[in-house]
């Protein structure tokens, strides 16, 4: 039995966006309009809205609007996670953020990826690579986390850094591309 394009996407395989994925994105866009209009609502009401769309929303997790994502249903937030204003998560596959992780404003997390070969890319296929962010991580404003990256528990990502490879537990990285930096 052949897989649907959505099943391929969720498995991290090459897939071609189709009507089912388009409908999922349209539903997410409608939800984002509601969520991003909720800035003045109490945190508890915004938390309830997050639970409508995201795969997992830990206790006291906060995302300050505006917020942007592709699907939402691939995002898992641990307890006491905080995302500041204007974050973007391209969640074609799972993006996991561990307990007590704090993410500054305008951080971008990309699980969406594209083939490197121009001919394959021209065919319209794409794929995703999961992003895993551990517990007690601090990510400074404007940082970009690329597809397939794992960030270990207690790591620090400097503001404006572009994280192109895995970051070990307790490690501090800064720059573009992000490189280890002594604490």
From TrEMBL:
GO terms for molecular function: acetyltransferase activity; O-acyltransferase activity. It comes from the Bacteria. CDD domains: LbH_MAT_GAT. Keywords: Acyltransferase, Nodulation, Repeat, Transferase. GO terms for cellular component: cytosol. Transmembrane segments: none annotated. This is Nodulation protein L. It comes from Bradyrhizobium lablabi.
């Amino acid at each position: 039995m052949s897989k649907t394009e959505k099943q391929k996407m969720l498995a991290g395989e090459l897939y071609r966006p189709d009507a089912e994925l388009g409908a999922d994105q349209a539903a997410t866009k409608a939800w984002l309009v509601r969520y991003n209009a909720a800035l003045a609502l109490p945190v508890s009401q915004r938390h309830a809205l997050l639970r409508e769309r995201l795969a997992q929303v830990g206790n006291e997790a906060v995302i300050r609007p505006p917020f942007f994502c592709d699907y939402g249903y691939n995002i898992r937030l641990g307890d006491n996670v905080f995302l500041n204003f204007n974050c973007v998560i391209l969640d074609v596959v799972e993006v996991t953020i561990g307990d007590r992780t704090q993410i500054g404003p305008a951080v971008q997390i990309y699980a969406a990826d594209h083939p490197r070969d121009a001919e394959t890319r021209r065919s319209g296929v794409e794929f995703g690579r999961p992003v895993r962010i551990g517990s007690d991580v601090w990510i400074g404003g404007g940082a970009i986390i690329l597809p397939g990256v794992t960030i270990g528990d207690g790591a620090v990502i400097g503001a404006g850094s572009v994280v192109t490879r895995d970051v070990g537990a307790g490690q501090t990285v800064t720059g573009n591309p992000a490189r280890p930096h002594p604490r």
